[in-house]
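Hi D.,

Good news: the full-assembly prediction came through. Inputs first.
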Amino acid sequence: MVVSVSEMMDDAPEVSVSGFNLSVSSIKVTEAIKKENSLVFVVGAQEFPSKKQHFVDRKFEDFEWLQQCLLMPDGIPGLQGIIFPPLPAKPCAFQSNTQEKMIKQLGLLGLDDDWKTYCMALEMYLQLVVSHTTLGKNQVLRSFFTQTQGPGGQAGRKGILNRLSQALEEIKKENHQDVDEFFRNERASNSSLVRLTKATTERLIAVVRTQQNIALACGHFSTTLHLGVGPDEDPAAKTFSKLSLKLSEIIIIVKKNFECVAENNLNILGLGLDLVSRYEESEKEMLFRRTCKLVELEQNSKNLEKAKPAKKANMEEIKKASEKEFRHISDIARLEIQKLHRVRVEVFQQCLTSWCEKQLHAARETSSILSQHLRAFKQLDSTE
Amino acid sequence: MSPRQPIPFKMYLFCPPSPVKFYDAAAAACSRSLKMATSSERSPPPFPESEDQEPDPDPADGDSDEGEDIFTGNSKPAEIKAERHQPPVDVTAKLQRDIPSSDPLGDLDGSGANKKPARDGRQADLFTEPRSDIFSEEAAARPARPGPASGSNANSSSKSNGIHSDEEQDIFAEATVELSLDSPHSERKETPKPVTSTESSVAVQPSAPKTALKTMAELEEEESEDKFELNISITNPEKVGDGMNAYMAYQVSTQTSLPMFRSKSFTVKRRFSDFLGLYEKLSEKHAQNGYIVPPPPEKSILGMTKVKVGKEDPSSAEFVERRRAALERYLQRVVAHPSLLQDPDVREFLERDELPRAVNTQALSGAGFLKMINRATDAVSKMTIKMNESDIWFEEKLQEVESEDQQLRKLHGVVESLVNHRKDLSINTAVFAKSVAMLGSSEDNTALSRALSQLAEVEDRMEQLHQEQASSDFFVFAELLADYIRLLGGVRGCFDQRMKTWQRWQDAQVTLQKKRENEARLLWANKPDKLQQAKEEIAEWENKVTQYEADFERISTTVRKEVLRFEKEKARDFKNQIMKYLESLLHSQQQLIKYWEAFLPEAKAIA
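Then the structure:
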């Protein structure tokens, strides 16, 4: 795992959920199996300290269910202030899977035909959830990780996060002026970051696709060279055939290099950028929730003022409640935002470093192979 | 550098067309003794068969240099002597190979003459009368002697030198320089040969059939030892004029040590139609003899129109650069061909300041249409000629050429797609870099912000690298493949010429047969007056048949040689290009390593 979640989070790597502790670093989504019409992910986790291993098959619907469950509990004050770890988009139906469609649906995660990148994203999601101070305590995690039967199928329940509920009013509320300067600034910067990070991710997608295309073209080049080599008798033609084969080898090296570079781009830098991008969107949603609450509060205040004496006490109650809620949310939000800033920087640091190291390694390897070939070729040249 | 053949070179003062491969010719001449030195084995063709014997034109480095030296130093025998002590190795080697007894100079003093075959006998003559052909032979021989013997045989050297200087002075006195030119230059054909007609004494040249076959192996060895001393570069494309009458003028710079040129380095301005005109001229003269005349780059009306209209965009700059490189390669191929290099048109192209405008190369001209029609009729007649191939080699080769053409076209398509993808990558990387830069500037955290800006810079540099690699792919491979696809057309052309020659021979045979039948008929009909005429005609056609048959043999040999040479060149070309490509790939990777190494600390420093 390139981005080490457990290092990022200040929280203890093991989370106590009334006896059910999971070792964050042990959480893995190892593979995606295509069963019938959908993808099944193999989710593994290890309990702490018992070291008991759990392996379950989960579909995407199960993950969705998990996400919604996390938002449900009413008992936790300020739950809405939490920036929820972002879940990747739903993978599309199989039959009509072209790379274009996959990218449209999944963004960067759709670039990998093997779903490796997608699995890594799911893995990160789970790790982030489990290691979250508040979310990690949720009971549903237990059933998610241990129950053989997937809990999914209950996706009908609408959670707060349900994007389908976004309506025109949200756009109005989005631009509602904030009372707090901290939040005002944060909302502004968040909105620009969301935009920029998304754009950067898209551009990276274009780069990776082109690199994949180049690898393919190199493959064609090499194959064509091979096909042109036949049994030759006369010396000049033989020389030419030898040259063709040599060139073919070199092109294969170029191809492998590009495949490696593209993979690094995708699985390290891309994954990191994608996570940051989705996290920022999650933050945006959180801020929106808070803004909604603010609107509600202000509405309640107005109502209170306008209220007739009979209802005044009631209104007062309502207003006080919403004020309290709002305060809770804002407090939590403040903490979460600061955490997110930190997380962002760390994610970037980790993934940029790791990415650079991998690319450097790839370049060094390719360079040494190429110089070997060049030396051999020069020797060939001098002997002929 | 010492001149090997001071005397003959002096002649260059008088007669510009100088034999390129003088030394090789001389060496070969020595081996062939009396048979050599026939410029007129076949009179009219500018490049007589004898030339075929030495396809490689590479003049030894020493040649031209020595020629130059001779010019400056030949007034002093002593100097000459000194100079002579360094004959080019290959000639020495060859001569020593050819000459059974590699005696030191001492032999030259007449006494040695006995040891040598016919040449020596002639040498005796030489000493008495400066017969230029023998002269050249001897001259060729002499450098060999002085070479090995220089150290030990100062005496004999001086002697021979003395002789040489005598000869030189004699030669100088004589205006009949061509004589010596002829003898050693049986391989080299210059059109000014007609001047040599004055040398009746040159009749020593036996019009023997080329001993090409005999010495072909030797020649090939010689060729591989020779180095090419002629560098051509095309630079500085400039737009001349305005609007639709504008054209690009390219500077053609030649650096050479070949004596046949007026100076060592010179530059002329040429335009694209000049190159096409050169091709037309060369093609007319040589294609019919079975030579593979390299075809020029293609016309591009669209490309040129953009340039003319004055669009200063990267695509028109790319077009000009592509054309410049293609023209350069074209000229380099032309001069790499031993026979073509001898053609005065080539020399004129390289040297002459102003060339008459080649108007019949315009795409939409009357001459252009005529050419199209000619080509069409050629194609039709080609289809109707069914040749009885007696030599399976030709049939196989032709098939090889066909399949190779297909393969090259496929490769070209694949390489072009690779080049396009690389260009795309370059563009995408640039766009990505910009995004990253913007992200970095909106980032609050300073270290992260700086790292992101650094990343943007790295990506920018990578874009540059990708661009370079794309252009390398293009120029190294795509253009090479395109060149060879065109060249294969030339190869096919020479096969066609051979077929035509065969056809002509067959037709002549048919006509002869008819004449004979006619004669028989006349005999039977007893018409003595017409009989005489018939007999004359028969004689005439018998000659023609013989000649055409000989032509066919000749062209077959030429084609064979040309194809072999072509294949060698092709292998060499591809090898060089692969090497270049490898080096550029390696360079790219090493650059990348540098960039990543520079970025890594920045990434780590994010806090």
